């Protein structure tokens, strides 16, 4: 896949990267190279391969997925400029 200069300019804008106009052709070539490499990776058969989280085999630490209130609402509300009845109090914005 080939990236043209206009697409490179748009990518730079979306990434909030200032790229000089004379550097856009080089950026387009580099982005094209990255996409070519990604296309090569898509050709690799990974059927039956477990996803890895690290280069060393290890299990992720897991916790039970339980919904809680965090248990420290009072500590959080200490930072609030105005708190009432266990909630942040904010100015009314809707009439």
From TrEMBL:
Its EC number is 6.3.5.-. Allows the formation of correctly charged Asn-tRNA(Asn) or Gln-tRNA(Gln) through the transamidation of misacylated Asp-tRNA(Asn) or Glu-tRNA(Gln) in organisms which lack either or both of asparaginyl-tRNA or glutaminyl-tRNA synthetases. The reaction takes place in the presence of glutamine and ATP through an activated phospho-Asp-tRNA(Asn) or phospho-Glu-tRNA(Gln). Heterotrimer of A, B and C subunits. This is Aspartyl/glutamyl-tRNA(Asn/Gln) amidotransferase subunit C. Keywords: ATP-binding, Ligase, Nucleotide-binding, Protein biosynthesis, Transferase. It comes from Paenirhodobacter enshiensis. It holds the Pfam family GatC. GO terms for molecular function: asparaginyl-tRNA synthase (glutamine-hydrolyzing) activity; ATP binding; glutaminyl-tRNA synthase (glutamine-hydrolyzing) activity; transferase activity. GO terms for biological process: glutaminyl-tRNAGln biosynthesis via transamidation; regulation of translational fidelity; translation. Belongs to the GatC family. It catalyses: L-aspartyl-tRNA(Asn) + L-glutamine + ATP + H2O = L-asparaginyl-tRNA(Asn) + L-glutamate + ADP + phosphate + 2 H(+); L-glutamyl-tRNA(Gln) + L-glutamine + ATP + H2O = L-glutaminyl-tRNA(Gln) + L-glutamate + ADP + phosphate + H(+). It is an enzyme of class 6 (ligase). InterPro entries: Asp/Glu-ADT_sf_sub_c, GatC.
């Amino acid at each position: 896949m080939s990236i043209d200069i206009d697409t490179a300019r748009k990518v730079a804008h979306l990434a909030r990267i200032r790229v000089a106009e004379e550097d856009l052709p080089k950026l387009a070539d580099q982005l094209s190279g990255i996409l070519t490499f990604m296309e090569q990776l898509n050709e690799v058969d990974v059927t039956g391969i477990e996803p890895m989280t690290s280069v060393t085999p290890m299990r992720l630490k897991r916790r039970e997925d339980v919904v809680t209130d965090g248990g420290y609402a009072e500590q959080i509300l200490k930072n609030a400029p105005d708190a009432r009845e266990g909630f942040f109090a904010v100015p009314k914005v809707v009439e």
